[in-house]
């Protein structure tokens, strides 16, 4: 209880704060470098993105200060209520949202628009933490596991309805938290297997895949043939796994691609895999060869050129020819990593990745040192969300993941992104400063 | 909760770390191992902008501009940035176009250069459009004016001499001399624009600019350290007197012919007129193709520079040269006379002479003043048959040598392109013509400037310079200095004094006196004016043309050559007016008026009637058009025949090929498949 005596500010974790601030600073620099022109009269121009971002940083820090002054029990008490408000906002957005670049996920008048889906991450984290840390919850039961999954997936479904699939995918990161809290290993394995199976379905001919899966099952069955003779459930399991794989690869994925996913999503997925969209998944009226190199393909290509041209040490600050001249679309938001890659090269990119990794590992460390499970679970939520954004965003700019429109935490230009990540961080810092207190 | 109690937190950490490692590996591959992205980045991001320097201007001897760059404005539009609230009606009003045209033009621009790039909306706005748009520019976002320069001829004169610029053709680009040109560049096509292309053009600059994703150039690459600056073209200062040139063109209006006036002391061309002339402003910009076609088809051939490209027999204007040759050879003395009774009969046929009175050719001066044909035919025969040469064939060769000395039979080397050489016959010419059997009687006409000799007006003017200078000349040329440097290496050839003959000055004096008599009391009294001693010679040149398959005698060319003043001459001039009549009737007044204008700066009121007479005369004969159309018809038929032969050959070859192919097919394919 030694920490209890110190002042509130000195109890905040300095390492996390420094990492957070350095990432935000790098973000400001990156946004500045994207829009900087040598002809600009001064760097303090309010119509430029970096100055707007400075304003947003001010707002974020102010909100952070408010959070620090809030009682740490407040967050757990209002977790469910905030979650309900979040869901309500998401539902309202479906009907009253405004269209921005093809997505229907923005709310509010122009200038004050925000994405409820972005903010709802905070509420979902709080609610999930509250639920999992509740003494009434026994996460070993299927019923509570389903409730936990529902808490994560309901916002995701509502966001999919707003045509913002990328943001919805972020909510899957809560499974990482639930895994930590006792979801069986098999779920993680199944999850990875499904991803692998999906990729295989997309890449390999359906008939060939059928043969491969069947022969794999046959080999597996041969290897555990004694088990099969003795045990009925083993037989059921083997046939079951085989059936699920079949169903997934032969029915589910084709149906998903044909009827659920949007045209641009299919294109993005295939372009990431370096393939053309197969004829069977083409939407009616869409031509087979609409010029090789559609929009998303172009984005990834330009992004790779920008990053690749950076070399080991980069072109130097403000010398990025590709990013400065807007070759990379969305470069100050989703593709902000390009400007780092181009200007600071492999060296700078590696430092940035190291910073992120340190921050995430630090958060995990903070989470594990909490006395109350609410704080711990919340810490995992923050780390998982960060990880998901970080992994998907950078991967898509370097062409190893599909182009999913999610931001790079702290770096991307955009008020609602910076604000929501800052809130996430400051709540964690606040909770951590009271880590000896039991929060329910 | 101890850390060891829960291994799953380590699984999560491993997932985090492995993701970061995968990214680092990928980044290492992208940024360090792979090279192609660096190349691609430079290709897409750096724009090589070629900057054209302003082309040099051309100024006359007093520094008055004759050809310079005029500022014009194009209206550009970036279709994507045209605001939806644009007041189309008021823009249409400002530009003076209707709404339909507006929409059409906008669509055209959008298609041509894409919605994000600037495209030309209106090329070369009129002065009114420019002014009105400039006032209201702030209303029309997306539209902007772009300054451009075009060549303009403020005095609209000396079209063929100044020349024009045009886009380099693909054929030209293949040649070595155009190695530094690119598709779309302009180059001088004719006249001084062509001869002095290298100095007028200046040096193109290359600026490297970064460009953005819509290919719009932005700021200099690396702060411009790789750029080469452009160097402006140099101005040309001419000897040409713009006022004299304009005056001459006015005198020559509605006539065919040419005037060349040269300053004998420098060889600088004071005026060069080829009539009919045209407004050179017609041959620029978008109008060129249309107008060029029109000029090309014109029967009066305005695109032919008659001063350097048309051949005329010199007629009687040859006589001073013949006299000098005879004097130099020594076959006559200045007091030599010929008893002409109105004709020359020595060769068995009559060669008419306009004078019959006794003693009109009693000595050289009189013979020149009265332009006695018999006298000069006779002295030509004396040269050709001179005993010291031994035979007419050698004698004619000597005469030919003298002709060359006077600058006949080869281009003078004037600094505008496409000059023709003229014809100065020699022994070979006559051997071919008469199969070797000829004598001085066969070709005595050349002595009086008829027959096989043919000169361009500039050669005639140059010969006058030689007489005026008493034996030397400078190659006629237009350019006095380049960029105010009169010693430019390009001008070196024109600074060389050509001493062509070693005829004693006394002989020149005699001939000059004779030429002065032409004006004082001879055939050219029309040129007489107070205070100036003019030396001149009239010429009335018989000529023939082929009309409807028959050689037809045409109206005589009116020719007049002169230099003035006799002592210390400042101008030498040659005038040809085609099919106009006596030399003294038309060419004489032109020459004397121009001399007066040049030497005294104005024409005295006593001679205004000559001016009026010339302004009002239309000497373009009707049959000029008939001859021209007949000529064009013949050319067309000849072309047609040639093409017919080629077509026949082609189709024969094609037929043979197909027969061969058929045989091959039958032999190797059909048999096998049976």
Task: Describe the main β-sheet of chain B briefly.
Answer: 6 strands, mixed
How much is the average pLDDT of chain A?
82
Tell me the Rg of chain B in angstroms. 36 Å
* Count of alpha and pi helical runs of chain B: 22
The percentage of residues in β strands of chain B lies in: 15-25%
Overall 3D shape of chain A = globular
| SSE sequence of chain A, one letter per element | HHHHEEHHHHHHHHHHHHHH
Helix vs. strand class of chain A:
mainly alpha
Q: From the alpha-carbon coordinates, what is the Rg of chain A to the nearest angstrom?
A: 24 Å
The whole-number mean of residue pLDDT values of chain B reads 85
CATH 2nd-level architecture of the largest domain in chain B = 3-Layer(aba) Sandwich
| CATH topology type of the largest domain in chain B | Beta-lactamase
CATH superfamily of the largest domain in chain B: DD-peptidase/beta-lactamase superfamily
Seen as an oligomer or otherwise, the chain set is heterodimer
Beta-strand segment tally of chain B: 20
Biggest pleated sheet of chain A: 2 strands, antiparallel
Tell me about this structure:
The complex is a heterodimer of chains A (440) and B (674). Chain A has 440 residues and is an all-alpha fold. Chain A has 2 domains: 11-189 and 293-433, no CATH class; 190-281. Helix content of chain A is 67%, strand content 2%. Chain A has 18 helices and 2 strands. Chain A has helices at 14-35, 49-69, 73-77, 79-96, 116-133, 142-161, 165-170, 174-180, 185-203, 206-223, 225-230, 232-260, 263-272, 295-308, 321-324, 336-368, 373-397, 415-433; strands spanning 98-100, 103-106. In chain A, a hairpin with a 2-residue loop joins strand 1 (98-100) and strand 2. In chain A, helix 16 runs antiparallel to helix 17 (373-397). The longest helix of chain A is centred in the last third of the chain and has 33 residues, at 336-368. The two termini of chain A are 19 Å apart. Mean pLDDT of chain A is 82; it is low at 287-293. With 674 residues, chain B is an alpha+beta fold. Chain B has 4 domains: 3-34; 49-238, Penicillin-binding protein 2a (Domain 2), CATH 3.90.1310.10; 242-620, Beta-lactamase; 622-674. Chain B has 22 helices and 20 strands. In chain B, strands 2, 3, 4, 5, 10 and 16 form a 6-stranded mixed beta sheet that branches. In chain B, a hairpin with a 5-residue loop joins strand 2 (58-59) and strand 3 (65-77). In chain B, helix 10 runs antiparallel to helix 20 (587-600). Chain B is elongated, with a radius of gyration of 36 Å. The termini of chain B are far apart. The model of chain B has no long low-confidence stretch (mean pLDDT 85). Chains A and B meet through helix 8, helix 14, helix 15, helix 16 and helix 17 of A and helix 1 and helix 2 of B.
